[in-house]
Amino acid sequence: MINKFDGQFAFLSNFFPSCIIGEDGFAYPTVEHYFQAQKTYDMQKRYSISLADTPGKAKRMGRKVELREDWEQIKDSVMLFAIRQKFKDPDLAQKLLATKDTELIEGNHWGDTYWGVDVNKGGENHLGKILMQVRTELHPIS
pTM, whole model, 2 decimals? Predict the structure, then answer.
């Protein structure tokens, strides 16, 4: 089990540098930038988020936008798109494939029980599940 996306497994984190080109045409320096920008329909705000200096700043900016009304229905597919884009990079794809069938858990201590598993509260681990899905897609059964 990989239960923390840091150190040698930092590449699994949404904060890891990996250019994502969105359907909106903007280039995002990390999955986090892309994901946060997709929370709004406002193209100027999306562009501003794409330019954020750090993924942490992009996350804070994403918390301040007016959420699109369908966000709860589409957020998983937005994340899946971003993770698929990230792992089109051959080096990152090889790293993901090297985790073989290891369970991937986005362990955290900041209370994220939807995308990850908080060490004190548990969680649903949707990010880990999406990463494992993309890993399977990259390694089709022959």
Answer: 0.94
